[in-house]
Specification:
Largest sheet: 5 strands, antiparallel
Order of helices and strands: EEEEEEEEHEEEEEEHEEEE
Distance between the termini: 63 Å
Length: 257
Amino acid sequence: NLFPSVAPPVFSQHGGQVANGFNLGITGTGTIYYTTDGSDPRDSLTSGTSLSITRSMTVQARAWSGVAWSALTSADFLVGTTPGIGDLVISEINYHPSDPTPAEFSAGFTDDDDFEFIEIRNTSAGPINLTDVSLVVSGSQSFSFGSLPTPADAVLSPGGHLVITFNNAGFSARYPGVPSFGDYSVRLSNNSDQVDLRLGDETVLFSVTYIDNSGWPESADGGGYSLVLNPNAPSGIDPSSWRLSEFAGGNPGANDT
């Protein structure tokens, strides 16, 4: 007798990818209350049987019979398109950061790998749904963007940047206030490595194979600078497509100008 007798609301589509402005229908008995900020609908003043979804969100709803609340109905909705080739790029790589400072070493960050980061950028004209995108390092999946904390995190706005790290704690110590969205599992080689953005298991959206010499910017190899993709570079394969960051440490999470 612990489960409420009031039936929970039913969504016309139970989550997933939707177009901007999608009209979500909500049916149920009594008065339906819903939220889009993660809070419990029992504390909400918003009621109704439809909702226009214009951004990625989690919709939660309960029905109130006048006497009792129903169980919770909850679903994640993603506003954004699946990326095609050319829609996403790896825009900055810090594969061999400078050594820890004495303060960083004292804080427990004893390896330069603790400060690695990879930045991606949406180069398309619309929001991109990252749910099925993964980062592949040395041929092995190292990070799935479908694991990002919330539906809003999994959608990258036009021109937007997103940073992932090898050690989020170390990155946050060196770059305080710069958001990162998770740690990849395969650290980057300090000599040469292949890094891909892939859709599902096969489609390569963007690929770079950097080297610490042979025409590649050498001060990215432990000299304190990151690799930055030149604007409108046709691909990440050619070393001429990359330059050093303007300042030591790079510029994660923003345009490096």
